[in-house]
Amino acid sequence: xxxxxxxxxxxxxxxxxxxxxxxxxxxxxxxxxxxxxxxxxxxxxxxxxxxxxxxxxxxxxxxxxxxxxxxxxxxxxxxxxxxxxxxxxxxxxxxxxxxxxxxxxxxxxxxxxxxxxxxxxxxxxxxxxxxxxxxxxxxxxxxxxxxxxxxxxxxxxxxxxxxxxxxxxxxxxxxxxxxxxxxxxxxxxxxxxxxxxxxxxxxxxxxxxxxxxxxxxxxxxxxxxxxxxxxxxxxxxxxxxxxxxxxxx
Length: 249
Ligand code: GLC
Ligand code: MG
Fold this sequence. Notes:
The protein is of the alpha/beta class. It has nine helices and twelve strands.
């Protein structure tokens, strides 16, 4: 097994991706120590959609992909089956779908964004908070364990309890036996909170959404850095601050 000396796990849209010059500047720095860093992309996108983004935006090839908000892990195009098997426990996809059908405000996302461990909708109404509470209550009543993740005031993901970006990351840290204190996570939205929580260090890019900014404000921890710059510029700033990249290049 390759031993990496540190771990970088990053969200894609609006974090690593958003300003092409910044993405390329970070790529250059990472390439200089590519074999030392275990690079993981963690995205809400499906694997095919994430690969398309990689080609469009010239992203480095990572060591692992965490896709579908942590519902799938891929290594070199291959689904990580132990993770999939773990998620399948206590997950009643069809019954959960039946419950969601009683909520007319939940608009299913395209088929390409659904997978065996992820059921995704759009929910855009001023009453979203109440609807989410009712959904949670219905699922609990019917004893259907599920995790409800609402991001960007638009995207609603229902996932097995063990599936989120942060737990997928924890699974990989255990599998690869990487020192937790040598890990840093970067993100911009609600579904990145799990990543930051599991990680010793974290960077919130300056363009982060209110849901992540308000979480950050409650943390009061110097393990997390709110960057003064957006997108991958903010990542570089945080990586330098915590000593993962040489500063002031
Ligand atoms: C990405 C996915 C979508 C998901 C959202 C939030 O946009 O394509 O399915 O709901 O991330 O996690
Ligand atoms: Mg994002």
